[in-house]
Amino acid sequence: MKRIGLCVAALALSAFLAMPAVAGETFDAVKAKGFVQVGVNQGLFGFGMADDKGTWRGLDVDTGRAVAAAVFGDASKVKFTPLTAVQRFTALQSGEIDVLCRNATRTLSRETSLGLNFCQTNYYDGQGFLITKKLGVNSAKELDGATVCVLPGTTTELNAADYFRSNGMKWKPVVIESTPELNKAFFAGRCDSLTSDISQLAGIRAVAPNPDDYMILPEVISKEPLSPAVRHGDDQWMDIVDFSVLAMINAEELGITSENVDEMLKSKDPKIQRFLGVTEGNGKALGLDEKWAYNIVKQVGNYGEVFERNVGADTPLGLERGLNALWTDGGLMYAPPFK
Amino acid sequence: MPKNDAAALMTGTIPFWNDPDKRAIIYQILTLAAVGAAAYYLISNTLANLARQNIATGFGFLQKESAFEIGESLIRYSAADTYARALWVGVLNTLKVSFIGIVVTVILGTVIGIARLSTNWLVSKLAGIYIEVMQDIPILLQLFFWYAIFYENLPSPRQAMAPFPGVFLSNRGFMFPVPESHPAHPYMLLAFAAACVAVWAMQRWARKRQARTGRIFPVIRASFCLLLGLPILVWTLFGAPTQMDAPELSGFNFNGGLSLSPEFGALLLGLVLYTAAFVAEIVRAGIQSVSYGQVEAAEALGLRPAMVLHLVILPQALRVIIPPLTSQMLNLTKNSSLAVAIGYPDFVSVANTTINQTGQAIEGVLLIMACYLCFSLLTSLFMNWYNKKMALVER
After folding, report:
1. Which of residues 262-321 of A touch B (CB under 8 A)?
2. pLDDT in the model for residue B53
3. Is the separation of the CB atoms in B345 and A177 below 8 Å?
4. Which domain holds residue A183?
5. Residues in Cβ contact with B145 at an 8 Å cutoff, skipping those fewer than 6 apart
6. For residue A21, is pLDDT > 50?
């Protein structure tokens, strides 16, 4: 039960009394225990979900693996903690996990009053509406008076309330805690529409009894920069997580893939030499092995590979790169110089 | 007994560690100190850790704008209201389902409990099957079941069933007309309250008169007349307003009238059917605790069956029934927090959302615990008072 989990998490928070949060402490603790503890979604296809063999897969899961590859040179030195939307931040605050990669939207209040630091966004999402085609609605502006299914404990509830309020429309939310139950209620027609991040709507539509009966409305009503998060007050650890994500983006920009990374070691391009640790310096600056970025690309892949593998056109989600394309292709994925 | 102890006993100067009364006090003080120290340790460390991790603490967030919407509410509420009001909406929703649930459960449970003892074989067996089945299925499964029945089987609002004119049944809920608000309504409520007082006074008077003279006054019939008659009289005096506020389909949903959502219906049905099985067993046990000889004695005195139940069995059975009944009422109230699973916006559901929007997990969980403690203590207080009133007074 999630409520019990929540209580346990809150108690754990008060029980973790001897957990000092001193700068550099997380990195040392991670190295000492020999693996990275990553908080992930319990079951969101494409982002964090265990497959039928129990292997965790997804964009967020691969982000966690990239951190492990950077720290240990081994992407498998990672353990996953499945968390609900309600538990996730408490789990991070209490030190139960080292990094949270669980499609969490970066917001001002989370960054400040929750005591978190968000790192480089690994997926730019936005909230939308999934509806039955039968309703004959073509725009979210026509949803006045609608009943809308919402998952609790997310920014989704706020965004939907804001959207209806700013457009002077009335609505009724139906808030159900478990995703499968919520989906069932929606498919049975309890709600006119279901609102969530568009990446999730694509996943939900994919598992509908008859996917062609449903469509996602064109309006994107919010900005959802989904980002990994760490605790406040540990700057070195934050840098490592931040640059682990950025390394994947930079690798794509430099044209380095998991296939060609060994050849690229021989490249004469000083940018590539610096990035892969042929020219030393970046690793030492982060407190990591000089091969950290090489290991990420070799074992996990560059951002484009990770995207296509988990949520891309050939997956059941079939998402376009859109905002998540490199800046050179008109997207928002942009890494600072690695020097 | 050694000599000096005996001497101490005579002079009344026992050392305090040998005096059981004083020793008991010392144990209590020590226990209290240990509990206090543990509480201090937990609280001070939690606060220190929260401060170090830059997590804001305190209940200041209650005054901030909630910015989220709630599906159903007994009071006017919008996303522009504060968290405090949002939580209050949740409290009222919990009270609504608990109160209605308790009343219906007690009635249904009593009926089934009596049916279980019926001399009619079929009735007794049916009640037995009901009790066994309902007790053995976890309440959460029952809630999912009823909720699925509601949303899978009911039509969409545009194809809503209309069993009576103005009454609609769809997967958006049960919509029915209510009288349009009119100045007469508060006065009708006042008249009803006055009737209640009058009924209470009349009962006392009738009982005294019967004790004095033996004459019986038709209390039940007179009470009905008072309770119905007074409000109707007021209504007629105001010109008998019959304007109704009826639900009408517009766009996606019905507007106007009153509605009960499928979430509320499923939760109420699940809670009532589940808890009534336990109440039925309690009622059966209570009735069976009165020895059959008393029934025979009462019948021998020429009392009618209804009077046997009313004057002989129930006064004694209630003493056995009330304490476990109280704990079933508390169970129902606490089980209502399973509402999050089927989307009814009860207190826990609203508090969960609040915790997530504000990040104030500890404060939120404290509020949830305090609130359910209050519900439980109030119910217990009332039931203890009632229990004392029903207990046999020895003369």
Report:
1. none
2. 67
3. no
4. 127-222
5. B270
6. no
pLDDT in tens, B345-370: 999 999 988 888 887 888 899 999 99
Predicted pLDDT of residue A226: 94
Stated pTM of the model: 0.75
Q: How many CB pairs under 8 A join A and B?
A: 151
What percent of chain A lies above the pLDDT cut of 70?
A: 92
The CA distance from B351 to B344, in Å, is 13
Kindly state whether residues B8 and B153 are assigned to the same domain.
Answer: no
Mutate which: A117, A190, A235, vs B, most B CBs within 10 A: A190
Q: Are residues A212 and A236 in the same domain?
A: no
Helices (H), chain B: 3-11, 20-52, 83-116, 121-136, 139-153, 184-213, 219-237, 262-288, 292-300, 305-307, 314-335, 347-358, 361-390
Mean pLDDT of A236-256: 96
- Average pLDDT of chain A, as a whole number: 88
**CA nearest neighbour of A153 among A173, A130, A170, A176:** A176
**Complex confidence, ipTM:** 0.72
B37's tokens: 């120290």
A330, part of any domain: no
Q: Would an 8 Å CB–CB cutoff place B49 in contact with chain A? A: yes
Q: Do A58 and A164 share a structural domain?
A: no
Q: Are residues B19 and B160 in the same domain?
A: no
Q: Is residue B193 part of a domain?
A: no
Provide φ and ψ at B249, rounded to 5°: -75, 125
Nearest-by-Cβ selection for A176 from B67, B343, B362 = B343
Q: Is the pLDDT of residue A202 over 90?
A: no
